[in-house]
Every structure is written in C-alpha cells, then in structure tokens.
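Hi W., the adenosine-5'-triphosphate complex you wanted:
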Amino acid sequence: MRAVPHLMFDPMVDPSGSARDALGVGQSAAPGLDVRHGTILTLEDINVSFDGFRALRDLTLYIGVGELRCIIGPNGAGKTTLMDVITGKTRPDSGKAWFGETLDLTRMSEVEIAEAGIGRKFQKPTVFEALSVFENLELAQKTDKSVWASLRARLSGEQKDRIEDVLTTIRLRESRNRPAGLLSHGQKQFLEIGMLLVQEPQLLLLDEPVAGMTDAETEFTAELFKSLAGTHSLMVVEHDMSFVGSIADRVSVLHQGHVLAEGSLEEVQANDEVIEVYLGR
Ligand SMILES: Nc1ncnc2c1ncn2[C@@H]1O[C@H](COP(=O)(O)OP(=O)(O)OP(=O)(O)O)[C@@H](O)[C@H]1O
Ligand SMILES: [Mg+2]
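Structure:
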C-alpha cells in the first residue's frame, strides 16, 4: 500500500509555519469547505435529551483538519449519539455544530451533510451481498442511488481511477469480482470503508470499526486509518484500548454525555477520574 506520512496532531508540523489555530495541521480541504482556522468540526455546548434523559450535556469538542481523534468511554456515555448529532440523525436541543467555518450541521438534512463531505460507518456492515465488490463501490460513488440505473450508467475515467485506488487502499483488488456476500466479516468492513472513500469525504466517523475483527484485520485497520489521516479527518469510537493506542494522536473520554478528559492516550489513562469511571473497571 502507498505509504502516506502520518501527520501528528501538532501545529508545529505545519510546514508553512503560518499562524493557525492550535487545532490545524495544515492540510488543504475539499473545494467548498472553509477550514481556514484549521478546525473541521466544531461542537459547542451540545445538549440532547431523550424523554428527559440527558444523553449529551454541554458537550464541546473540536476536531482539527487531518486529525485522527479517538473517542472512548463507558457504554451509554453518548458516543453513538454524538455521531448521530454530527450526521443530522439526531437534532440537538441546544448547542452549535459546524462543519468547517460555514456549514451549520443543525440546519442540514442527513443527505446534505453526507454530500458536504461527512461519511459514517456503522458497526454492522451494510454492503449489497449479491453485488460484486466493484459494483458495491460503483454504486456508493453514484449520487443516484437507484441500483440498476447506477449500474447501467457508464463510469467516467476519473471515477474508475478512484475506484481502482480505493480497491488498492482497502486491499480488495483480488476480490473485485467476488460477490460481497462471500467476503469475510473483516473484508466486508473494509469494503464498507471503501464505499465511504469513493465518495471522497473530508471527515470520516467510524463507530467501533474493529469489533469482531481478527488480530490481522485489526492491525490492517490501524494502518489504513493512519494512512487516511492527514488527507482526511477521522473520528473513531472504539473500546479496544490497544487499537486506540496504536492509532490515536489525541483521545477524548466521554462520560455521561460530557467530555471528561482529552489528551494523548497516556495522559487520559493517567487521569484519576477516567480511571475511576472507565479504565479502572
Ligand atoms: N433514541 C434514543 N431514545 C432513548 N434513549 C436513547 C436513544 N439513543 C440513545 N439513548 C440513550 O442515550 C445514552 C447514550 O447512548 P449511546 O448509544 O450514545 O451510548 P454509547 O456511548 O454509544 O454506548 P456504547 O459504548 O454501548 O455503544 C444511553 O443511555 C442510551 O440508552
Ligand atoms: Mg455506541
């Protein structure tokens, strides 16, 4: 696989040396997305209640352009709800949610948010089992989601190149003509990540991506995410601490809908409150 240098979450690596907000790592983003302050996602004082139960409370979180952020925390901490807010599935009762400097996520539909460049992978793979690996990627690339209309339409050279690149990235080049239903669980997960990548998202949200994977698949996932960081921003929710340790620049610990601690994995692991509510169990 093509080696892409892993940009650390550190404004000092910005080769231009220009003054940016502390979050920026100096990556250019897609045309149309304004990230001039180096922050791709801004969440401020987000509140979400379900029948009086406060799933997110005054949650504030910033993700830098090109950053790979891990979100950890006990069951029920609000990690999935946080992703639901970012993708427009759940509307916050209050708070701010911005993609780049100008896109107000609280006023956009789920489709608009996806089209603006936020891709989400759910835990359970949702590939079309009867279609080949290539056809799944082809379908994901199309904006018209009608299966047969999409498969009949001819791909442009550029679109084909993109699919070829993604097949290499997700290591499914050899399996391109296999029905997706015959892939292993891990390969289906990689295919689903590929289905996000063909849409060229700026921000990828991945909820428990290595659950159920073999050790080798987990290791490849770590490599893949590190290679995507820098050119993409990633938010990864995961309980597997050794996986988190192998990828994370920076970790946010969620507890009862609030960010309890933030820092390197070593820093949050040394935090007394974090040990008490999560790691020490
Ligand atoms: N649609 C909903 N209606 C009512 N309660 C909900 C809803 N969605 C989530 N909750 C509650 O909000 C809290 C946060 O749930 P969430 O799924 O975000 O946790 P999580 O951090 O992803 O947990 P896990 O690690 O188990 O996946 C939980 O107590 C959950 O029961
Ligand atoms: Mg969850």
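Residues 79-80 surround magnesium ion (ligand 2) (CB under 6 Å).

W.
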